[in-house]
Amino acid sequence: MHISQSIEVRRVKAATRGTISVGIDATDLFDRYDEEYEDVPGSSFPQIEINKMHISQSIEAPLTSTDTAILSGNLSTQNGNGGGSINLALRRVTSAKGWGELEFGAGDLHGPLFGLKIFRNLTPRCFITTHCALQFSSRGVRPGLTTVLARNLDKNTMGYLQWRWGIQSAMNTSIVRDTKTSHFTVAMQLGIPHSFMMVSYQHKFQDEDQTRVKGSLKAGFFGTIVEYGAERKISRHSVLGATVSVGVPQGVSLKIKLNRASQTYFFPVHLTDQLLPSAVFYATVGPLVIYFAMHRLVIKPYLRAQKERELEKQRENTASDILQKKQEAEAAVRLMQEAVRRIIEAEEARMGLIIVNAWYGKFVNDNSRKNEKVKVIDVTVPLQCLVKDSKLILTEASKAGLPGFYDPCVGEEKSLKVLYQFRGVLHQVMAADNEALRIPKQCK
């Protein structure tokens, strides 16, 4: 969205992107029940067919610091008829304000294609993109022109004005607002053959799975479409999403999308041509039930096993370093013994702070994992050495860096558990690895 990124994104290393789309016709699941009152012979089982497929792939490779080559191709088939095309584009960054691109393409459904695209920053907050193309076919030369003018309205909002002339002429304007917790789009198009208005909202949850819930309304001369859905991160490089589309006269569809790194797998499933409540219900509930079942039975065990393998590998790679730090910590504890003896004598004389026991590492509280080895070290002496004037204050940093400490379980969550005596009364406290700790509790 930001203009400054429009140039820099074209200087990255070679990257490949791909999309595989498989269209599924599942209308027999719902529409077949309309035939119960008709004398039409048929199978007792609904027929689900793959009626269209689309595969596209592209690779973007820098040639020099200013030149980039982009090779892309696609294949499509629908109801037994198909075709494909291949394109080569050469892009040059002419200055910090713009770049130009030449495009050459050919396909079995049309003749050669020649195109020119130009990007230019007009001001620090405004840019323009123009794309003109000539497509040769048996019907002659078919020219096309697309121009997009964009402007930053504020830090999170962009405004776009698009004019398209040629095979499908249209004027489109849209406003896109993207924040940390939401994404909002409103658009309007006047054109031939389609004119429409669209409103779309997406809410981003601030959880580790990066869950997003979205909904949109699109109305025009073609009819009305309502869409709602959600997407969620299921692994480090994979995002799974599902969208339900309900419209007139399109009917009900379920769209499933999986993004895996730079590859996209898309499965639009057409359920019915009519507005059937049963189709909407199953399209909404079905993916949720399947997802939660798969997440519990397949995804979570797989991610847990993967994390354990990574931790084991990390431990193997850092074994010698951990051993060295352990020896250093033990040596530091031996040097602390005399100082700790004097501190304890002084604290006992004033009935101050005495560290009875202290442990640092991973504590397992889950009964299902009670047989797992608890990875903790005794840090009673190092903590007592840090007591000053009957107070112990630890800042918000990993405790593994304290004198006499080391990390007994690299890569895992750790805690500090302390049993201490103050004014003759025993107390116990537990703090996370990066959590600040102040004892006794009344210490400010």
Automatic annotation (TrEMBL):
Q: Does the keyword Transmembrane apply?
A: yes
The residues covered by the DnaJ-like protein C11 C-terminal domain are 313-440
Which residues are in coiled coils? 308-349
Q: Which residues are the signal sequence here?
A: none
Listed under GO cellular component are: mitochondrion
Residue ranges of every copy of the DNAJC11-like beta-barrel domain listed in the record: 53-265
GO process annotations (BP): cristae formation
Q: Which Pfam families match?
A: DnaJ-like_C11_C, DNAJC11_beta-barrel
Keywords associated with the record: Chaperone, Coiled coil, Membrane, Transmembrane, Transmembrane helix
> So where does this one cross the membrane?
279-299
Protein name listed in UniProt = DnaJ heat shock protein family (Hsp40) member C11
Q: Which gene encodes it?
A: DNAJC11
